[in-house]
Amino acid sequence: MLAILQESLLNAPIVHRGAYHYFIHPISDGVPQLEPALLDEVTDHILGMVTKDFDKILAIEAMGIPLATALSMKTGIPFTIIRKRPYELEGEIKLSQETGYSKGELYINDVREGDRVLIVDDVISTGGTLVALMNALEGIGATVTDNIVIIERGDGVSRLRDMGIDVKTLVRIDVTEKGVSIEAVHE
Ligand SMILES: O=P(O)(O)OC[C@H]1O[C@H](OP(=O)(O)OP(=O)(O)O)[C@H](O)[C@@H]1O
Ligand code: HPA
């Protein structure tokens, strides 16, 4: 299962971002090109994993966007993007994002107390992005019905689990300078 995802991961090129071995993949980078069949495979799989009673899909710029778009079209449920730029609208929440290779700010708009949100993202690595996001959503008073990430590497999932936060992923990989290996597929 998840045959297209697995095959494409095994072919992913690796580049160095400082000491971080960064894999390049259609789901996490839009490079090489993202085939509709892969997007269809992963988003159908997500819909088989989640609790259905969410009223908003929440994705992080940039590579949460194609996932949220496909999920929204399959479910008829709207999506909001957590952006890397501010709009300075009333109620905008700013959070600091730190990954294994970058630091920046993210801005949440149009998420309100009582919203039931499905979070979707392409990759979890250190977990820094999701920790910051979950803290901000708790402050807003939104309920996260599921937290879904396609590709898991590193210790981010166990870091969140230690904080009592469940993250579901489709595949766990290891990345070395030689390439990607698949450690687990979560059917
Ligand atoms: O678990 P972490 O170490 O926090 O890493 C995961 C984050 O890294 C990537 O974001 P990036 O800022 O590279 O965004 P992109 O989608 O624009 O490539 C990815 O989309 C996650 O949001
Ligand atoms: O190695 C990576 N590749 C693509 N996106 C990512 N987001 C965190 N780590 C990675």
TrEMBL record:
<dbReference type="GO" id="GO:0006166">
    <property type="term" value="P:purine ribonucleoside salvage"/>
</dbReference>
<comment type="pathway">
    <text>Purine metabolism; IMP biosynthesis via salvage pathway; IMP from hypoxanthine: step 1/1.</text>
</comment>
<keyword id="KW-0808">Transferase</keyword>
<dbReference type="GO" id="GO:0052657">
    <property type="term" value="F:guanine phosphoribosyltransferase activity"/>
</dbReference>
<dbReference type="Pfam" id="PF00156">
    <property type="entry name" value="Pribosyltran"/>
</dbReference>
<keyword id="KW-0963">Cytoplasm</keyword>
<dbReference type="GO" id="GO:0032264">
    <property type="term" value="P:IMP salvage"/>
</dbReference>
<keyword id="KW-0660">Purine salvage</keyword>
<dbReference type="GO" id="GO:0005737">
    <property type="term" value="C:cytoplasm"/>
</dbReference>
<feature type="domain" description="Phosphoribosyltransferase">
    <location>
        <begin position="53"/>
        <end position="171"/>
    </location>
</feature>
<comment type="function">
    <text>Catalyzes a salvage reaction resulting in the formation of IMP that is energically less costly than de novo synthesis.</text>
</comment>
<dbReference type="GO" id="GO:0004422">
    <property type="term" value="F:hypoxanthine phosphoribosyltransferase activity"/>
</dbReference>
<dbReference type="InterPro" id="IPR050118">
    <property type="entry name" value="Pur/Pyrimidine_PRTase"/>
</dbReference>
<dbReference type="InterPro" id="IPR029057">
    <property type="entry name" value="PRTase-like"/>
</dbReference>
<dbReference type="InterPro" id="IPR000836">
    <property type="entry name" value="PRTase_dom"/>
</dbReference>
<protein>
    <recommendedName>
        <fullName>Hypoxanthine/guanine phosphoribosyltransferase</fullName>
        <ecNumber>2.4.2.8</ecNumber>
    </recommendedName>
</protein>
<keyword id="KW-0328">Glycosyltransferase</keyword>
<comment type="similarity">
    <text>Belongs to the purine/pyrimidine phosphoribosyltransferase family. Archaeal HPRT subfamily.</text>
</comment>
<dbReference type="InterPro" id="IPR026597">
    <property type="entry name" value="HGPRTase-like"/>
</dbReference>
<comment type="subunit">
    <text>Homodimer.</text>
</comment>
